[in-house]
Amino acid sequence: MAAMREQLLAGIETYQTNQANVNSCIDRFSQMDTAAVSPLMMSNVIWHLVAASARLAQLADSMYSTIALTTHTCTQAQRWHVTDMPAEPMRIIIALSDVTTIARFSSTARPITAALRPIVRRFRLSKAVEVAGLSGVVRFDTQLDHGDVMKAMWMVEKGGEGEWKEAGEALRFAEHCGYCQLPITVSAEDLQTHATKADYSSLPRFCAQWMVVGRQVALRRPTGQQDGTLQLFRHNNEIRIIRNQPNFAITTNPPLPLPSRPTHPFSQHPFTHHAKPHDPPVRHSIVWQHGVGWTAAGANNVHASASSMLKRLLRVHRVLAVGGFTQSPAVVVDRSARGGHLDRIMTRSPHTPLNGCSEALTCEGANGRCVQLHALTTSDDPFISWIPFGIPPGNSQDVLVSILTSEAPAAGVPQDAPFAQRFPLTAAKARRVLGPIAPIVLDGQAP
Known about the structure:
Layout: H1 2-30, H2 39-71, H3 87-96, H4 99-108, H5 113-131, E1 138-140, H6 146-157, H7 165-177, E2 184-186, H8 188-191, H9 197-201, H10 205-213, E3 218-220, E4 226-229, E5 232-235, E6 238-241, E7 249-252, H11 270-273, E8 282-284, E9 287-289, E10 293-295, E11 301-303, H12 306-322, E12 326-327, E13 331-334, H13 337-346, E14 359-364, E15 370-375, E16 385-391, E17 398-401, E18 404-405, H14 419-422, H15 424-434, H16 438-443
Parallel strand pairs: 1-2
Antiparallel strand pairs: 3-4, 5-6, 6-7, 7-8, 8-11, 9-10, 11-14, 12-18, 13-17, 14-15, 15-16, 16-17, 16-18
Helix pairs in contact: 3-5, 5-6, 7-12
């Protein structure tokens, strides 16, 4: 018995030494630069934590059972789990692990699932939203179960930093037009839009993302009448918008003809040359008609990207269904005037806003008319204003320029006064964008 006691005391001493070392490592681990730890190393740490937790639980059961049998007490054996680990080291582990590792961690150690859920939700998911550029734009329902939290993490983190850029911009544009309030809240129902990761990955990334968030954008008039939501639907291999009906289908990556006129310096169509695979060009025939609403009776217009199409539809509804806009007289300006400022505008990437603008929308009509539309304002402004630049069919040299604004007319200025005097805030923004051609467009100067 003496030898056995010595063996027990030696085992306890070794255990206490190892436990002290682990506790010391945990303290040092919480102070580490997280960028210095690779996901592989973190997976190894997690595996050992899970294994150690299981062994500790077995040891505790064995020791408490022995004590109970020896002393005839009915003390309930206390189980030890990795859930007893301090919150800060656990947060670091979660922050450094990829989604697959966390899922395996959770499924391997079922008792800690409840502990993982708030850590993942509070730290990892919020960090993923921040990295994706969606802070203040998207949040997730606090009532999501653990599976939906993991699904949300995968969806937000897929593709890396900034991969929700276009979706975030479209949501901000929708808020500026008055069709949603940010941040929107993504629910469990929204997350069920895609049944599997394969379903999500089979679509262009922007389209897959917008299927999750689009129904939050309600096309509502001031009277309260709603004209649908700017939602994308999947029907077999077809993508539809606003209404889940055949005529409301859109075509991604439609055939694009080579330019028949020198509107762009490249031999390819500009939509092809600047194409983004995750946010591809699209074609549709959806228009707004007074007294009818949305209908698929239009010509097949092609947009530079799916996100550009969505924002264009928002603008159409805001101008035609809601109203409250004033348009300046259209001015025809030669694209070579004043040093070719317009030519540089019309030949830039169709996705790039002009300096001082928040959005760029570009489309080409079936009749050959090309339009670039640049947003002069953001949601920080008390009004909405755009500058459209249009190249008419059959005329590659002239550009039609006008300004559209919801700014209230300046007090005391006659109604027949020049546009720049009636809407001084809009005119000031436009002058910065128009540069050397501003006097032609706003002041009536000759080229």
